[in-house]
Design brief:
With about 450 residues, the protein is an alpha/beta fold. The longest helix is centred in the C-terminal third of the chain and has 22 residues. The strands form 5 sheets. Strands 4-12-11-10-7-5-6 form a 7-stranded mixed beta sheet. A 4-stranded mixed beta sheet has the order 1-2-3-17. It has 2 domains: about 180 residues, Aspartate Aminotransferase, domain 1 (Alpha-Beta Complex), CATH 3.90.1150; about 260 residues, Aspartate Aminotransferase, domain 2 (3-Layer(aba) Sandwich), CATH 3.40.640.10. Helix 4 runs antiparallel to helix 10, helix 8 packs parallel to helix 9 and helix 12 crosses helix 13. It has 13 helices and 19 strands. About 35% of the residues lie in helices and about 15% in strands. Bound molecules: 4'-deoxy-4'-aminopyridoxal-5'-phosphate. 4'-deoxy-4'-aminopyridoxal-5'-phosphate binds next to helix 6. Its cofactor is pyridoxal 5'-phosphate. Keywords: Aminotransferase, Pyridoxal phosphate, Transferase. Its EC number is 2.6.1.76.
């Protein structure tokens, strides 16, 4: 059955993408960190639905919340009518919001996916400001619909000004290293101040506090505060995409809380639905100027997702799982960093909380000449000369991990970053097993 299911699905599904090709397993049961395949093999799931499963698979409080709705006789589909389930979800969500936003927040249910919420956020700031331009960052990922794609890192769009995201290792702008964040911030500031640059006053700036799909690149808190100051000073709404970083993942309930930055708009999805599809934007009330009917959608009222989401949010809050993610993540980062001493192909280990990336490089590759950049007549020193990315090696590590019962995915511009996104509920022993299996996989394929 296992082989047949895989073969049929890989053959029938679009060539664009199916995880089934990269991860040939057929999950039939799951609990917490563990997935069991149709062939009886068990895996530690560090993909977690691309970071969705804050409480892991089939957490009892989530199942209980879903069952309660199913058994209550409440309607499952009500468009976005007011319901007790929605009321409970919104109350719990508002309870978690950063101070400064919580007391004056509005919510727009979007959905069902993160990309839908990104679209709504872009539409909101464009309506509120009457402007159309957008500031976004190299390496960003915001989704696969037209507006979200336009805001994502690699896309070309005349309305979007692409800014350097601070990245001290292998910075594509050649401004990495310890001063990288400072230089990236000055780059943005001088671009916006330069009336000759041709950058029109934009409708908003959109950023991820940690770039996830972009290769697990945490933005320094000081840089985030600079971006807040830059946008506030120029009345540009700041949209923070916490689709992947939210609900405790990075060691704070929302990743912006590390820096104290209060965004104007937050884009939320993934973990807020407790493993079911749910996406919302929350934003400052004075931006709520779009007319009735400006945003709609049939699937904005998923009762099961709201119930599962409310249960997840309150469980993470009451059990201090963000703090747990911070402690555990720091320990795992520490252990994984020792691997970069052991293996020349481990270029950098980085992350925040339980959002961890291991970037693989080719130690024998040619080192490209660093590019010098000039800003305000100040010649900037390029960051440390990076080694070339090693996407084939990364794919081999992913396969070797799977062979050892560890599910990981790749990210980054070159698909050379092994990403770990385990549930926040993992035990110390499970965290150690993840590190051991990854080390083992590296030892098997690395030179
Ligand atoms: N924003 C971020 C930061 C994401 O990581 C993702 C998904 N990986 C999205 C938006 C898009 O979400 P979805 O895939 O649900 O459309």
């Amino acid at each position: 059955a296992h082989e047949g299911i895989l073969r049929r699905q890989c053959a029938r599904e679009s060539a664009a993408r199916t995880y089934a090709r990269a991860l040939p397993i057929v999950p039939v049961r799951a609990r917490g960190l563990t997935i069991e395949g149709a062939d009886g093999r068990r895996y530690l799931d560090c993909l977690s639905g691309a970071g969705t499963l804050a409480l892991g698979h089939n957490h009892p409080v989530v199942l209980e919340a879903i069952r309660k709705v199913l058994d209550s006789g409440a309607p499952l589909h009500v468009l976005d009518l007011a319901t007790p389930v929605k009321d409970a979800f919104t109350t719990e969500l508002f309870h978690t919001l950063p101070p400064g936003l919580a007391d004056r927040a509005r919510i727009q249910f979007c959905g069902p996916a993160g990309t839908d919420a990104v679209e709504a956020a872009l539409k909101l700031v464009r309506t509120a400001t009457g402007r159309s331009g957008l500031l976004s960052f190299a390496g960003a990922y915001h989704g696969m619909t037209a507006g979200a794609l336009e805001a994502s890192g690699g896309a070309q769009d005349v309305r979007v000004t692409r800014l350097p995201y601070p990245q001290d290792y292998r910075c594509p702008f050649g401004i990495g290293g310890p001063r990288g964040a400072e230089l990236a911030a000055r780059w943005t500031e001088s671009l916006l101040d330069d009336t000759k640059s041709g950058v029109p006053q934009p409708a908003g700036m959109i950023l991820e506090p940690v770039q996830g799909e972009g290769g697990v690149i945490p933005a320094p808190d000081a840089w985030l505060r600079r971006m807040r100051a830059v946008t506030e000073h120029r009345s540009i709404p700041l949209v923070v995409d916490e689709v992947q970083t939210g609900v405790g993942r990075t060691g704070a309930f929302w990743a912006v809380e590390h820096s104290g930055v209060v965004p104007d708009v937050m884009v939320l999805s993934k973990a807020i639905g407790g493993s079911l599809p749910l996406a919302v934007i929350v934003y400052r009330d004075d931006l709520d100027v779009w007319p009735p009917g400006a945003h709609a959608g049939t699937f904005r009222g998923n009762q099961l997702a709201m119930a599962a989401g409310a249960a997840t949010l309150s469980y993470v809050r009451e059990n201090a799982l963000a703090e747990r993610a911070a402690t555990l993540g720091a320990r795992m980062l520490d252990q994984l960093r020792r691997l970069s001493d052991e293996f020349a192909c481990v270029g950098e280990v980085r992350g925040r909380g339980l959002m961890i990336g291991v970037e693989l490089v080719d130690p024998d590759g040619a080192v490209p000449a660093p590019t010098a950049v000039e800003l305000d007549d100040d010649p900037l020193l390029a960051g440390p000369a990076p080694l070339p990315a090693a996407p084939q090696l990364a794919a081999a590590v992913r396969d070797a991990c799977l062979h050892r019962g560890l599910i990981v995915e790749l990210g980054g511009r070159h698909s050379s970053v092994v990403r770990l996104l385990p549930p926040l509920t993992i035990t110390d022993e499970q965290a150690a097993a993840i590190v051991d299996r990854l080390a083992d996989a590296l030892a098997a394929v690395a030179r």
